[in-house]
What does this fold into?
Amino acid sequence: MTQPALFTLPRDKAINIATVPHRSPFRYPGGKTWLIPYIRTWLLAKPESPDMLIEPFAGGGIAGLTVAAERLAKHVLLVELDDDVAAVWQTMLEGDADWLVTKIVSFEVTPESVRSILTKTGCTRAEKAFQTILKNRVNRGGILAPGAGLVKNGENGKGLTSRWYPETLKKRILAIVAMRDRLRFIHGDGIRVMEQNAHRKNAVFFVDPPYTAGGKNAGSRLYTHWQLDHEELFRITSTLAGDFLMTYEAADEVRDLAAKHGFDTEAIAMKTTHHAHLNELLIGPGLSWVRR
Ligand SMILES: C[S@@+](CC[C@H](N)C(=O)[O-])C[C@H]1O[C@@H](n2cnc3c(N)ncnc32)[C@H](O)[C@@H]1O
It folds into this structure.
């Protein structure tokens, strides 16, 4: 079989995310849509497609969804600790996704209807999934953590509806349902799942943990679960028999941890939602595929 052509990656220029298919129903803070060309290049450079891609800090899961949709690995395992985010994945992959889709397309967004859904307690899992998707669309920056405020004027002064695209959400959710046979979700601790799968030679790991270096990064405002033992994560990562790609803010503390474990690093340009160019640090056992 001939190898698909590899992309030339613009390491010093941010990737234009308009060129990447958006497959996640989430607009995820810290989402990695912009990294997709790198993830493709990483996996396509392998002589054989991996048995499984494990994404231990899944969030909106764009990496896993792309890998499943483009069959860059045979199976995908997503792991996420957050209850609300988990409810969405579980409803799409194991639950009543049709109910969720119907609810989304029939919902009329008004300040009252939004308030009534967002303040509802004692929800079923599917109701919680709907509540989470709505919150993700009407909160400023898609932030789901407590304390996040609602959008005010939104795009073009359209207020609460400015990010509510029911037909797009329906399309994305149904596309995910159609991949149920090769997508699995675990509601739990990503580090433990990495540990349990560390022996698998033909599993690969895409690791995008929450990070709050120097208090500069807004991780603690973006996610409910933002605290993580980074030393432990690096230690477990060093025991993986399979390949991995980790991504972090390019901070000295992170470079030191990578050096301590003998990992390769490469700083690349990224685009934040505010269009500032920052450096992101890719980490792996060997990153020669980035430099080709
Ligand atoms: C940087 S975000 C991941 C974004 C994701 N790559 C995307 O493109 O949408 C980190 C995620 O890790 C989750 N998280 C934090 N601690 C975790 C843990 N111990 N196990 C699993 N997930 C965790 C957070 O809730 C958050 O969703």
